[in-house]
Amino acid sequence: MMNIHPVKGPIAANGERAHEADHPTSLVAQFGADQPLRLECGVDLAPFQIAYQTYGTLNADKSNAILVCHALTMDQHIANPHPLTGKPGGWLTLVGPGKPIDTDRYFVVCSNVIGSCMGSTGPASTNPATGKVWGLDFPVITIPDMVRAQAMLIDRLGIDKLFCVVGGSMGGMQVLQWSVAYPERVFSAMPIACATRHSAQNIAFHELGRQAVMADPDWAHGRYVETGAHPHRGLAVARMAAHITYLSDAALHRKFGRRMQDRELPTFSFDADFQVESYLRYQGSSFVERFDANSYLYLTRAMDYFDIAADHGGVLAAAFRGTQTRFCVVSFTSDWLFPTPESRAIVHALNAGGARVSFAEVETDKGHDAFLLDEPEFIDIARAFLHSAATARGLGRAER
Amino acid sequence: MAVQESLPLGTSERPMLRVHRADHLLVADMVETGSKVLDVGCGEGDLMQLLESRGVDCRGIELSREGVNRCVSRGLAVVQGDADTDLDNYTDDAFDYVILSQTLQATRQPKVVLENLLRIGRRAIVSFPNFGYINMRLQLLINGQMPRTENLPATWYDTPNIHFCTIKDFVVLCDEINVKMERAVALDRYGRPLRLNAPWWFWNMFGEQGVFLLSRAQKKPAASPGDYIAP
């Protein structure tokens, strides 16, 4: 039988996802009307909330806190099962007891970014002024806005200086923004597989994804919550396209090649004959269960707007001048979304600014996603960098 | 056992006490404690680690990915880069010393690299294999073949060393680009310094490598008023 609907959507998940947006299975910091989040677009967002997870224990002088900044479609559940999907934590290769981001040694904070849909205020949240879901009435946010919100959370937690800020991809952009906006609050920084600005090609891929969402009739100009639908087909296509950019030709070839899915011969139809098609459809349909379509529009937009040099008179080095932060920049050989030259540009700017910086390019065929995977060379580098930074910060070993 | 797990690989793999190379010890002795150093071509970071253990703030550049990753996993601040192209990105006077250890002969433009070293650093420490070493000369003279030694085992067709020079050549270059030699040491094949009062030709013949502490020479002094001759 021919599969004419490319992707099946789980309507049942809508309610659960909507509930999580306002009442997350997480710690929540509320900010009232007296503490607005001043957004770059000129709007003061108030009231708003930040959903976050913590792991480990803050030491007495509050010097062992690591802020993990999550990537585009990830969230704060980096080292615990996900409340919607039940899958294990999103960054267990790096975060946990005995891992490089050792929760026996460090106090780890990860907050859902503003504009996302896992409990921090975003387009999927209820607008208290109207009692309805924000949808497209939510103001457009930027990476600096996300970081400003995180800084308010870190203030709320009583932490003056973070021991380290770590993140990959969009998380890496936040790390760079942290080190530029609050250099005195960041002892060390690990921007991984990222860039100081989003490239034209990456903006183009994001536009493709957004157009796929908006072309779905169920999107209803962003008012799908009122119609009770969710543009799962459009969002799934967006995810499928994006997912290809997270992998590499070599990895796709190694994992799937031209192998057929549960069949020997082509069906001469548009069914998922190839394993790679089946895999992508699965990626698309599982994504829509947990992610809000409007959030996807807002977060991709935030990445598009990111350009640190533009905020510093076009001179990237000026952004990092005189920084005392210790940096470890990491890129991956087969990452074509944030290729090594992007990381090299960060390193050149840091060198010109006199920063203490390490930079390693890790050889892998796993593409951009490598930073989330078990990549021993990368994990060793993260462990050693954090260990030497901890020694410099005067942090003792883990007590066990 | 749990504590062992949290050790970075860099320190758990290697013994705590290590034997330092003779030329590294010599270079390290030239660097003042508390200064800021850039090691260009830092390899696996042995010299950097020696310097950091002596209270020197050290950064490194290394061409090979394996070398860089090894350094970073030893906790050293090293970036992947090329002495020929990436030194341009560093600002003037960014370091107290810039070290180029056994790397000059592998650069495409040794003169430009040398000038860059003394732009970025107030001082430069350069060590290189001496192609005028008696063993080298004899191999070429008697065997009629490109010399190979224990320290330079590569054949002519796969060597990364494309710009060999002798100690004498290097001294001439320093004069040419107005570089002041603050200290010069020639080491024999065992890494021992040759007699200090030996003449240049002796060093050029019996030194297997040269180690130089360089600084920018004063600009040629402007003619003093007394020298001025009215037209």
UniProtKB/TrEMBL annotation, chain A:
Substrate binds at R239, D369. One of its GO terms (cellular component) is cytoplasm. Keywords: Acyltransferase, Amino-acid biosynthesis, Cytoplasm, Methionine biosynthesis, Transferase. The keyword Cell membrane does not apply. It is an enzyme of class 2 (transferase). Pfam families: Abhydrolase_1. One of its GO terms (biological process) is homoserine metabolic process. The active site is at S169, D335, H368. The keyword Transferase applies. It catalyses: L-homoserine + acetyl-CoA = O-acetyl-L-homoserine + CoA. Its EC number is 2.3.1.31. It is found in: Cytoplasm. SUPFAM superfamilies: alpha/beta-Hydrolases. Homodimer. Belongs to the AB hydrolase superfamily. MetX family. This is Homoserine O-acetyltransferase.
UniProtKB/TrEMBL annotation, chain B:
InterPro entries: Methionine_synth_MetW, SAM-dependent_MTases_sf. CDD domains: AdoMet_MTases (cd02440). It holds the Pfam family MetW. It comes from the Bacteria. NCBIfam families: metW. This is Methionine biosynthesis protein MetW. It comes from Rhodopseudomonas palustris.
